[in-house]
Amino acid sequence: LFVMPRARGRRVGTALVEAARPHAEKTSAKGLVLETKRDNVWAQQLYERLGWKRDEMFYHYYLEM
Ligand SMILES: CC(C)(COP(=O)(O)OP(=O)(O)OC[C@H]1O[C@@H](n2cnc3c(N)ncnc32)[C@H](O)[C@@H]1OP(=O)(O)O)[C@@H](O)C(=O)NCCC(=O)NCCS
What we know:
Largest sheet: none
Mean pLDDT: 95
Number of helices: 2
Order of helices and strands: HH
Structural class: mainly alpha
Shape: globular
Helix content: 25-40%
Oligomer: single chain
Radius of gyration: 14 Å
Bound molecules: coenzyme A
């Protein structure tokens, strides 16, 4: 999820996240996943305001190349 800096704070991010849901339903997706850095409080607030739940059970691993 990314909104150009000059367009931020105008509900574009909200509109994008909300548009993903009907698209996922229409295409029979199993679910939707969002990620953000732990210190990105704006993104976390946006997700949680829209009813998304934070995963407290799983860590994500990666291998750097
Ligand atoms: C996170 C991001 C997608 C939000 O997009 P956006 O279009 O600005 O989001 P919205 O306007 O829908 O909502 C932003 C909320 O944060 C608040 N906010 C405060 N200051 C803000 C700022 N400088 N910029 C954006 N939002 C701000 C807004 O008031 C709003 O809260 P509200 O609904 O209670 O009023 C955007 O900031 C972004 O692209 N950031 C860089 C990439 C990023 O962090 N992506 C997310 C996870 S990796």
